[in-house]
Design goal:
Beta-Lactamase; 2 domains; about 45% helix; alpha+beta; 9 helices; 8 strands; Arc Repressor Mutant, subunit A
Length: about 250
Amino acid sequence: METKPVSSVDNALHVLQLFKSRRVLRVADVADDLGVARSTAHRLLVALVQRGFAAQERVTRAYIPGPELMEIGLAVVDMLDIRGRARPFMTALADELHETVSLVVLEGANARFVDSIESPQVVRVSSRTGQVLPAHCVSGGKVLLSTLSRDGIDHLYHVEELPTLTPYSISTKTALLEALDEIRERGYSTNEAESEPDVCAAAVALQMAGSAAAVTVAAPSSRVQTGSVDDLGLAIQRIVEAVQSGDGSSTISA
């Protein structure tokens, strides 16, 4: 009973993989390649068209990659491009501060960690690469939210109550708006046990043409004494500005 849906998904993925080596696909080709009836191959292709992963040419009736598939590919390329352009900043921060450095991008009201350089110290914050957390609970997410307009914030947050990760997380939209005003004024954001107990962090938004990303430096709270998380934020600002104005500037101003 459960093998049929799995088989259908596997066949659909197989069809998508065929686009890697062929510009166009025909029903007969797909049927032969998958070892299924032509009616089954046709249903698979129609389903992919409905989801935007394939499109059908009007004249030849052959199938070509659809807009959704191309957008996913472009998004992956763009993500790799962001990581490459942000590496000079991340390397400079890791070399000077010896704490874990991460690269963060916004995904709606969430923050995705897309790259990381772990601290060389024995007690350290581990890599979060691949994790997705509420943007208002992490320093990188908050600094990126601060770059949005009020309309942009309202589009992301429709209600007053916000989800939390720890007792120190921002829990209301009102508190978030106040925090974003402070971040805009000082140019960096902080996180004191808001996403994880015993972890402090600070972040700065990067100035990269066409891309919105932030670098965050996270450390165990035991190494960030009370009040000095702001010192961490100021240090990140200084190092990022040095990279932007120094030899690495030509690398990142694409």
